[in-house]
Amino acid sequence: MKIITDIKAMQKKADELRAIGKKIGFVPTMGFLHEGHLNLIREAKKRCDTTIMSIYVNPTQFGPDEDLDDYPRDFDRDCSLAEKEGCDIIFHPDSKQIYPDNYLTYVEVEDITSVLCGASRPGHFKGVTTIVTKLFNIVKPHVAVFGQKDAQQAIVIKKMTRDLNLDIDIVVAPIVREKDGLAKSSRNTYLSGDEREQALVLNQSLKMAEKEIKSGERNAEKLKSAIVDLITRQPDAVIDYVEIVEADTLAPVTIITNEVLIAFAVKIGRTRLIDNIVVQV
Ligand code: AMP
Predict the structure, then answer these.
(1) Model pLDDT for residues 148-196, shown as the tens digit of each residue
(2) Whose CA is nearest to atom 10 of ligand 1?
(3) Which atom of ligand 1 is nearest to the CA of 184?
(4) Ligand 1 centre from 19 Cα, in Å?
(5) Active-site annotation holder among 37, 92, 124, 142
(6) CA diameter of the chain
(7) Nearest CA to ligand 1 atom 7
(8) Distance 21 CA to ligand 1 centre (A)
């Protein structure tokens, strides 16, 4: 596996791969890899000849009071996990290259970025769409793989790709969970043993809501209240948001008549966790 840190070198390598007809699959990450990330490599490998993973903790998607400095990092471990999974290239730039002095250009998707995580993390998606566009221009992929774990991010990236006519297939891979149901996340390492136990309520509340919908409940407000009630029984859980929206457009839903996305962000102690489920009626 090759490690590339220089932008120009990455672009040259991508050009060479394209020139010999290789299909490039791309997996953007912030590192501290877990099974969720490794599954994205598998999905890329199924569809492409060469798999490139980026590992870059992007400062512009963190708010001033968020965990940019504390975000877990272990580049050597990441490299060995990615290599074992058959990743061909790791692109690992530094921030001086990505955002040089006097950097002034951003990419912004409107509307669907102002709800859910966008409402509680102002500027977050502007950082995400900017870095993903830049990475697309550096790695030049045919296919890019994202996780359903960040459901809103996947929808925003798909919209950006369509709106800007980017010639890239966006693939969304399912959420990978721990055996006990907790969605895998690099941020799970922040949880104490007790908080880790409390966090199980997140997946449990999604399952409860799914069951209610399958048994005929159609009132989104009632379902949201039931989720809030269940989650806030945990002593250290503080709800950031709980939303039920149309699965494709993120438009608000009052009466459930179609496929919906149930998504939330919850702080367990100091750790902000997100999770979601798509439910068909
Ligand atoms: P991150 O490194 O957390 O920014 O995530 C990089 C990519 O991995 C994003 O597309 C995430 O949606 C995806 N991802 C993170 N955790 C999971 C998970 N548990 N299951 C599936 N995909 C995930």
Answers:
(1) 999 999 999 999 999 999 999 999 999 999 999 999 999 999 999 999 9
(2) 146
(3) 19
(4) 30
(5) 37
(6) 58
(7) 29
(8) 29
34 catalytic? Reply is no
What CATH number does the domain containing 243 carry?
A: 3.30.1300.10
Ordered DSSP codes for 14-62: HHHHHHTTPPEEEEEE-SS--HHHHHHHHHHHHH-SEEEEEE---GGGS
- Ligand 1: which residue has its CA nearest to atom 5? 29
CA distance 78 to 76: 5
Q: Give yes or no: residues 91 and 129 share one domain.
A: yes
Whether 152 and 116 have beta carbons less than 8 Å apart is answered as: yes
Tell me what percent of the residues of the chain surpass a pLDDT of 90.
100
Residues 104 and 29 in one domain: yes
Q: Ligand 1 centroid vs 32 CA: distance in angstroms?
A: 10
Same domain flag for 33 and 160: yes
Ligand 1-lining residues (CB < 6 angstroms): 29-30, 36-37, 40, 146-147, 149-150, 173, 175-176, 183-186
| Domains contained in the chain, number | 2
* Collapsed DSSP state (helix, strand, coil) of residue 167: coil
Residue ranges making up the domain that contains 168:
2-173
Looking at the structure, tell me whether residues 85 and 215 fall in a common domain.
Answer: no
Could you tell me which of 112, 99, 120 has the C-alpha nearest to residue 151?
Answer: 112
Q: Which atom of ligand 1 is nearest to the CA of 32?
A: 2
On average, the pLDDT of the chain sits at 98
DSSP 191: -
Note the pLDDT of residue 166.
98
Residue 29 Cα, ligand 1 centroid: separation in angstroms? 7
> 70 is written with which tokens?
């504390």
What is the value of pTM for the model shown? Answer: 0.98
